[in-house]
Amino acid sequence: MRLDKFLKISRILKRRTVANEAVKGGRVTVNGREVKPAYSLKVGDVVSIRFGAEHVRFKVNELKEFVKKEEVSSLYEILPAEEEKA
Fold first, then answer.
1. CA nearest 28: which of 73, 85, 43, 38?
2. pTM over 0.70
3. Which residues pair with 76 in a beta bridge?
4. By C-alpha distance, which of 63, 78, 8 is closest to 37?
5. pLDDT of 86 above 60
6. Residue-wise over 2-28: b if at least 16 C-beta within 10 A, else e?
7. How far apart are the first and last CA of the chain?
8. Which residues contact 79 (CB under 8 A, 6 or more apart)?
9. Three-state SS at 4
């Protein structure tokens, strides 16, 4: 599944266009690498998103095309934040 689509379906970002812009802007990394919005996300990938000074890291547990809002939490697992390297 495309990265931008996953961010929208999982409700991490509200719209796919916003997800697309965030990825293109370099605020999203997968497994420590900057990627494009069309990156093919796989189960087990670790995604990091930067919101200003805050970082959110999560591991992809499941990929689904359609998800009810009650099932969204099964798609990913929030990971503890990494310390910034000086």
1. 38
2. yes
3. 60
4. 8
5. no
6. bbbbbbbbbebbeebeebbebbeeeeb
7. 34
8. 46, 57, 58, 59
9. helix
Do residues 55 and 48 lie in contact, with contact meaning Cβ atoms separated by under 8 Å?
Answer: yes
Q: What is residue 22's three-state secondary structure? A: helix
Residue pointed to by tokens 């999203």: 28
Question: Which pLDDT tens digit goes with each residue over 3-60?
Answer: 999 999 999 999 999 999 999 999 999 999 999 999 999 999 999 999 888 889 999 9
Contact 51, 72 (CB under 8 A): no
Tokens of 39: 């990156």
Weakest mean pLDDT among 21-25, 60-64, 78-82? 78-82
SS3 48: strand
Helix (H) or strand (E) holding 3: helix 3-9
